Every structure is written in structure tokens, then in C-alpha cells.
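Async update (no meeting this week)

Hi team, since we skipped the sync, here's where things stand on the single-chain job. The sequence we agreed to prioritize is pasted below, unchanged from the tracker. I ran it this morning and attached the output directly underneath so nobody has to dig for it. Comments welcome in thread, and please keep replies under the output.
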Amino acid sequence: MVDTRVEVQDLFDAYLWIAVAVAVIVFGAVGFAALRYRHRSGREPSRRSDALRAELAYVGVLVLITAGLVTATFRTEDEVDAVASDPALRIDVTAFQWGWTWTYPDGFRVTGNSESPPTFAVPTDRTVRFTLRSRDVIHAFWIPEQRFKRDAFPNRTTEFDLDFDQPGMNGGVCAEFCGLRHSQMSFDVLALSEPDFQAWLADRSGGAP
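Output:
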């Protein structure tokens, strides 16, 4: 199982600390130059001079940083995009203006819209395979708590796996502008232990589609 939160958070931390280091170096160099070479009476302004080695070293460092971040980004995306050979649960997700439909293997469905956002359940510590599609325009399935977002396209299906390691409620929204009620196109994911999930499913589906 791949925890998307850990993978994406680690990548974000790498970007953040590299950005902080670069900012410290740049602002430090600018501050040093401003103080060390500030205007003083009797001092002539320095003339332009080339520092080819320093400039090449600077460019080389930037290339290495960029290559490292690009490599880490693609590696993380590959890990997040990977799907299990045998997921514990499969759920079909259909997005539409402005709501969602979640279909479980036995045919039980949870549907909601902008006026009544849906809540669907998943088991914890199990790999859940989602098959995502759109009924009309482009939408986006986004669960901020999971650090995961995936676009939903009309006439195309997308598959991805998610793992919910802790019981609780996770809020989700559409993250692609899709019309007047886009901001109200939300949903909730209720993560339950396996016994509680089976009880939730049996209670709402009545044991039949």
C-alpha cells in the first residue's frame, strides 16, 4: 500500500527546504553586497568584470537542483499512480454538475449534489480502487487530507488506489471549475474499520442492489 499523504508530503518538504536554502543564499548575497559595497564618499564605483568559473558553478548548481527535483517528482508520481493487482474494494465514481455518485460492487449507490453533499464510506487499512469518470464536463476529485487530486473527464475512465489508515471523516471537493455551483460540489469520505464498514454497507444497501 502507498500512503499518498507521506509520499506527497516528503516531496513538498524537499521543495520547501531547497527553496528556503536558495532564498537564504540569494538574500544573504544581496545583503552582503549592499552593505559591503555601499556608496561612500571618495569611492569609485567598481567596473564590470567577468567571473566565468563562478558563473559556471552557479549554473551547474541550478541544473543539479532542477534535475534532482524533477527526478524526485516523477518518482513520487510513479509511486502514487501505481495500482494494486488485487484491491480490497472497488468503487465507481461518477462526477456531474454538481454532484457525485459512488457505486459499490453490489450495485449500492450513494448520490448527492450541491444541495445535499454525499457521504460514502471506505474501510481503513485496505486498498480501495476508484474508477473515475465524468458525465458532462471536466471535474476534479480532490481529498486534501490525502494530498490527492485526480481529474475526471467525460468519455474517459481513470483508475487510482487510495489507502485510509485512520478512521474518521475526510472532506473532498471538486477542484476544477465546472460551472456556477462548482464551489458547492463537495463530498465526505467516512473511513471505518473493516467490521464497521461492513455494518455500514449492510445497513444502507439492505443486502441487495
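Quick observations from my side:
DSSP finds three helices and ten strands in the chain.
The mean pLDDT is 85.
Reply here if anything looks off.
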